[in-house]
Amino acid sequence: QGQLDESGGGLVQAGDSLRLSCTASGFSLTPYVRAWFRQAPGKPREFVAGILWNSGATSYGDSVKGRFTLSRDIAKKTAYLEMVSLKPEDTAVYYCAARRTATLSQWEGVYDFWGQGTQVTVSS
Hints:
Blueprint (H helix, E strand, L loop, with lengths): L2 E5 L2 E4 L4 E8 L7 E7 L6 E7 L5 E3 L7 E6 L4 E6 L8 E8 L13 E2 L3 E6 L1
Parallel strand pairs: 2-11
Antiparallel strand pairs: 1-3, 3-8, 4-5, 4-9, 5-6, 7-8, 9-10, 9-11
């Protein structure tokens, strides 16, 4: 089975930008959907953004629309989450997820693979 490796988290100030990366390895076939979820302490996991790997079509959670952009580099098997105008409420552990079915979903239960997570902390 394959794995997803996230990187790029860190501590930033409100208004700053950050880019997260999610690289897939070990898959015989690259999963059709890559997505980012996040989970803040005491809160449920929340859909952030997702991308259909072949077409590049994207979907975003309401709280990040207009501030976050998800893209992918097919050759590098890497998805990039560009985050700008970060707010303290964006503080969370960000998880990369992938699914083998070619349908974008905001429900975490349908994703087949998960990364370990990367912490993003935004100070006010």
